User: What shape does this take?
Amino acid sequence: MENTSLLSDSIEDIQKAAELILGGSVVGIPTETVYGLGADALNPMAVKKIFAAKGRPADNPLIVHIYSIDQVQILGHDIPDLFYTLAEKFWPGPLTMIVPKNDIVPLETSGGLETVGIRMPSHPVMRELIRLSKPVAAPSANRSGYPSPTKAEHVINDMNGKISAVIDGGECRYGVESTVISFENENTIRILRPGSVTKEMLSEYADDVIVDKAILNALEEGRTAPSPGMKYKHYSPKADVILIDGDYPDFCRYVINNSDDSTYCLIYDSDNGKQLPCHYMTYGSDGSEQAHNIFARLREIDNLHAKKVYVRSPEKDGVGLAVYNRLLRAAGFEVIKV
Ligand code: AMP
Ligand code: MG
Assistant: This one.
């Protein structure tokens, strides 16, 4: 394929992107979570191109993005009332809900599952694109396993020559992928991937909100992943990521004893980096800021050829849980408690 063209977020360019999608091509698109690699969700040939561009395992399902609530019934069935309650509250926005799929959704899109994850995004470019085309299947627009892209340049770095175009819509607002939930029964939901719609927010609308064990631990041997993405190493830069869980003075003590010239640290804005013997960057002062910055920082650290990066663990509540979950996977579950 020739070079990937860079489109603006003008109406004309969104129209061009919609035509590409209707013609079965793949386009990089800004969303409020991270950049997505979008294709016609109902066209198996188009969807296969997404898997090829990312190098994504075929059993890792894609989320289907919609423009209006009446598209839900086209894609899925047996939709619980709670689905609509949550849609009313959190859509358009960073929440994906899993329901049994209709035949119109190809197995290529659902990774072979009989269910489909549906989300109505809020980003105006993504919304307009879906309105002008079709329901859009879109995973994060990174090479499989690598940190998710939150700027158009990240998508170009990973996908140049592999997809038709990228729309530059600036930096993504939230910075981590959507919260993914399934329904255990009418009033109980299970969080399969934490995101910016938090457990605390969901708890206001459901009797019970279960945080799946695999969010904070490696998948147990022999257990089928309720969400196939849980099986794979994810979000990792080339540098070795090591999560350090503890207060800043203890973090410093550990780093002082265990670093060299090629070591970087990722710490909070409020931490005093001058106490560290190595290079450092900061990634925010609360869960939302850390979510916004984390993937861009991991990419920046790679560009500096760091060999090892010690990350001061975020708090594990609110949006912090989503950041912790991504870092845990980037670190291959290596956490040092200090
Ligand atoms: P990404 O496309 O990179 O944001 O990843 C989407 C994730 O959502 C996948 O890795 C899955 O784990 C999860 N997911 C999407 N659809 C389903 C589904 N039908 N059932 C379970 N998990 C899903
Ligand atoms: Mg992804």
Remarks:
- The radius of gyration is 20 Å.
- Residues 260 and 278 are 7 Å apart (CA to CA).
